[in-house]
């Protein structure tokens, strides 16, 4: 930076102006470079986080696909053996054929309860595995007590397929393995009898081979931990089955690693900075769950490799900046010798700039007076205006990109919802239709329906607090929880209670859901339903009379973990229609700030009492649009109509 000197007759104004420009440019460039470096580092870290999460998700998904392939045959065999006990030769041929056609599987067994395979046969557990490159039947080594092993006990007690923790099998396989066990059940009247399990063993050597193919950057590597944090696969074989994330955290006194381990064993995913002792230098970890086994996969990348491009780009920018300063110095020297250019040329250039030509060069005056200063002021104005227009263009493009991403998000959200109607054309006992119109590009309303067996239909309508992407994500979580829990429970109140407990966990944003959930017995017309603070649905009797359902009281889902919900039952007559909706229907407003209200809704339902569910939903939506007119839609609108025809329909 040049030092300030007293002006002289030969270089007073021009020298001061040159010194100010160079000093200002130095400060601006320094501040811009510092801001650029910090912002670029943050942007790069976010981009790396997204890429790492996508990579680990993809790797976990690929491994899950391979493990799912391992699961298919045991599930099929358990189902088949539950229907009819096979002949011994057929069972052994099934197990041997399973290994012969599935190179990823090390061993397979079918272990029966005492006397379950054949009367008088206390223990029966044929086991096949790979020995010397061939499929061979070997002894388990503990045939008299296999029912005490975890791979047998856990699926029997839980009543569902289970992946075991990794263990060393000293007798049958004689390797470190993990076992997938599927219970064999036979239904005898109303009772389900446990017969035994079908298993598939996966060698940890095979798993390490699969995980070892995953890498990021130059020296990043992947590893897998079990449901309790024990290393199942790791490049350092000394850690496998001997150490866990928590033992390392305890040894090093690292609460950060302990917190990461807790999130991994809980099935979370994330991108976190690791303590320096893990690699001996700063590093980052991306991790995601393996849904098939309940384990978690992680990828570790050194920080210097993450930011290598940023450091290289910083050096290039510094080099360009130095060159720019050299050019700027020459320009300032040229300006200082040409400050006496005529004002007419300056005015003509200013007029050209005013027409929109921001690339027009500004003539530099040669005199050392106010004419040169004015020329430079015009140059600064031109550059600022050009930058402003460039920023405005970039902002417009960013806005268009955001709108495009929101449209994609809406498409993804709508793909979560059933949209094929009629949903079950083979069933004639009922007819169902639903529709959702979000107020924003994405919203928080939801509906769902699915069969619970051949004669029971579960359907629901819900409303998440808030709008936009957070509400849409909470909606997707809620819908997934309901479907998963409904596979285990058939009481609406129990389903809502369990969903509420799950939503209350780590709900720091305090989002909540209102929901009406019902289960229809298609054979009898009995409707069991429960409510979590939702609007009462309407019932349209076969004669067209409209009434509002009386719902049991229940608080919103996601607020109080100890909340209690109740189930109410009623019987629907054939021809009865049930119309469920969210508050976006009755609270829709017109330009006069009037509400659509339940009275107008009841009138609309009465007028369309004989319509099909799809036509009735469309009639309600059309009535709301006509009522709202030019008013903006303030809330998501969801409607669902179910027409019960009766078990004798069709």
Automatic annotation (TrEMBL):
GO molecular function: phosphatase activity
Domain HAMP residues, every copy: 337-390
Keyword line: Hydrolase, Membrane, Transmembrane, Transmembrane helix
Transmembrane segments: 317-336
GO biological process assignments: signal transduction
Assigned GO CC terms: membrane
InterPro entries: Bact_Sigma-Reg, HAMP_dom, PPM-type-like_dom_sf, PPM-type_phosphatase-like_dom
Superkingdom of the source species: Bacteria
Signal peptide: none
Keyword field contains Membrane: yes
Protein name stated in the entry: HAMP domain-containing protein,cache domain-containing protein
Organism whose genome encodes this protein: Desulfovibrio sp. U5L
């Amino acid at each position: 930076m040049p030092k300030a000197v007293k002006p002289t007759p030969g270089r007073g104004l021009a020298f001061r102006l040159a010194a100010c420009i160079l000093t200002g440019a130095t400060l601006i460039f320094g501040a811009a470079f510092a801001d650029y470096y910090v912002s670029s580092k943050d942007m790069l870290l976010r981009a790396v986080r997204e890429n790492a999460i996508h990579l680990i998700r993809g790797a976990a998904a690929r491994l899950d696909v391979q493990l799912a392939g391992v699961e298919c045959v045991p599930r099929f065999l358990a189902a088949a053996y539950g229907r009819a006990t096979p002949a011994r030769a057929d069972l052994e041929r099934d197990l041997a054929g399973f290994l012969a056609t599935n190179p990823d599987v090390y061993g397979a067994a079918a272990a029966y309860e005492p006397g379950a395979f054949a009367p008088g046969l206390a223990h029966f557990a044929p086991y096949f595995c790979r020995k010397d490159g061939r499929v061979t039947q070997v002894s388990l080594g503990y045939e008299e007590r296999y029912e005490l092993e975890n791979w047998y006990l856990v699926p029997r007690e839980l009543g569902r397929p289970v992946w075991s923790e990794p263990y060393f099998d000293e007798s049958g396989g004689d390797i470190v393995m993990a076992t997938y066990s599927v219970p064999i059940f036979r239904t005898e009247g109303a009772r389900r009898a446990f017969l035994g399990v079908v298993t598939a063993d996966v060698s940890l050597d095979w798993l390490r081979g699969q995980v070892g193919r995953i890498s990021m950057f130059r020296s990043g590597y992947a590893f897998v931990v079990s449901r309790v944090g024990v290393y199942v696969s790791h490049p350092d074989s000394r850690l496998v089955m001997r150490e866990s994330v928590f033992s390392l955290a305890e040894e090093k006194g690292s609460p950060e690693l302990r917190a990461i381990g807790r999130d991994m064993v809980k099935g979370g995913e994330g991108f976190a900075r690791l303590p320096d002792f893990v690699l001996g230098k700063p590093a980052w970890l991306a991790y995601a769950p393996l849904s098939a086994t309940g384990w978690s996969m992680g990828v570790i990348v050194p920080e210097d490799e993450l930011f290598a491009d940023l450091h290289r780009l910083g050096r290039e920018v510094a080099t360009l900046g130095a060159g720019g300063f050299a050019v700027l110095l020459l320009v300032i020297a040229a300006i200082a010798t040409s400050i006496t250019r005529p004002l007419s040329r300056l005015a003509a250039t200013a007029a050209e700039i005013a027409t929109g030509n921001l690339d027009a060069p500004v003539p530099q005056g040669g005199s050392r007076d106010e004419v040169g200063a004015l020329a430079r002021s015009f140059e600064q104005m031109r550059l600022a205006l050009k930058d402003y227009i460039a920023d405005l263009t970039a902002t417009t493009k960013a806005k268009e990109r955001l709108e495009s991403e929101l449209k994609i998000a809406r498409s993804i959200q709508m793909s979560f919802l059933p949209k094929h109607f009629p949903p079950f054309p083979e069933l004639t006992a009922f007819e169902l239709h639903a529709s959702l119109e979000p107020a924003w590009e994405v919203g928080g309303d939801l509906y769902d329906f699915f069969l619970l067996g051949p004669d029971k239909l579960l359907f629901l309508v819900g409303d998440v607090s808030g709008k936009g992407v957070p509400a849409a994500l909470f909606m997707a979580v809620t819908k997934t929880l309901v479907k998963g829990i409904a596979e285990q429970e058939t009481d609406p109140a129990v389903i809502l209670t369990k969903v509420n407990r799950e939503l209350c966990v780590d709900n720091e944003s305090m989002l909540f859901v209102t929901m009406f959930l019902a289960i229809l017995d298609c054979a009898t017309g009995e409707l069991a339903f429960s409510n979590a603070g939702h609007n009462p649905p309407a019932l349209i009797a076969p004669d067209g009379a409209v009434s509002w359902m009386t719902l049991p009281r229940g608080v919103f889902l996601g607020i109080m973990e100890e909340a209690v919900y109740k189930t109410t039952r009623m019987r629907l007559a054939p021809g009865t229609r049930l119309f469920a909706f969210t508050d976006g229907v009755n609270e829709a407003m017109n330009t006069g700030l009037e509400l659509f209200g339940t009275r107008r809704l009841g009138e609309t339902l009465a007028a369309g009492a004989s319509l099909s569910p799809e036509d009735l939903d469309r009639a309600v939506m059309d009535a709301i649009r006509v009522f709202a007119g030019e008013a903006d839609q303030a809330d998501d609108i969801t409607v669902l109509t179910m027409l019960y025809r009766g078990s004798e329909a069709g």
